[in-house]
Design goal:
The chain starts with a helix and ends with a strand. 48% of the residues lie in helices and 8% in strands. It has helices at 3-8, 12-18, 21-27, 31-34, 43-54, 61-80, 85-91, 105-125, 127-130, 135-144, 153-164, 204-216, 229-242, 247-253, 287-295; strands spanning 190-193, 198-201, 220-224, 267-271, 300-302, 313-317. With 320 residues, it is α+β, with helices and mostly antiparallel strands.
Length: 320
Amino acid sequence: MDRRTLLKSLSLLGFVALGSGTILRQAMMTDKLQKSFGMGALQGEWAANNLQYGMEDILPTELSEALSVVHQQAAAQAVATGVTEAETRTRYFESVFDDDYFLPEDKRETMLMAYQRLDRLQSFVGHGNFNLLSFDEALKFARNYSDIGNFTPAEMNFLDELYHIDARLYGFYGDRVLNTLTSRIVKTDVESVGRTGHYLFKGKSMVFYDRLLKDVGDDLVLTSGVRSMVKQLHLFLAKAEQSAGNMSKASRSLAPPGYSYHAVGDFDVGKVGFGYRNFSDDFSETDVYKRLQDLGFVEIRYTTDNNFGVRYEPWHIQVS
């Protein structure tokens, strides 16, 4: 089934009623996307792929494009029926709105170069190490290894601006949680979570996760833990590039660099073998999520009615 056929198979009314999970279920019908979902029944096998090289929170491009078309139509219908603007933006997060902030055209190439360099850096150090890498360490690797290549002055200026910009310009209203671009994760403060490729902060986060494993069961898996500044830069730029420089659209899917609570304690969980659907509304329909809710003490950072300007993330556990 090609992309056009996929889009024709979607019912707008059904989509509006059920949320973005509908398109994900439809997409599972395509041969091309099947490998992106359900990456194996064993936790270790699934987590080792780490959602295609550590790109958690970022849906495959073909799926994102299909979702964008449907969201655009649904957002227009929502506005016509009087749904609030804030609710429309976060529910139809892949849509494009008239006042979205687009990166100036003269910076698009620089953004792509910076993203590709970070991508090479992640491949070089491995996605597990990349989760903890500081900006200063990233610069050192780039200087010393030609496979990565040194950051250009234009890239350095761009990344500095990206960190320091007030994210409210994009429509993101969360708090900045890292006070410098060079903020670093102290390696002795974190612990590797076996067979996941991720880390958690020792103490509250690790204790919380262990309790969830005990109470929910082996179907629960850590899908994203500690994220350094460099890791969040990479994820955000990946989404911004996928969104053709629409920084507002990117910030509706994940926190801009410096604003991610993954840097101070939060983590994501999913259902073993559920693949990319762990980062969609579909996760809220799983038995794992329902058991989390039944526990009563689990709080979700980005709820359906959150004021951050971010899509609903039923997988994102609030710790800090």
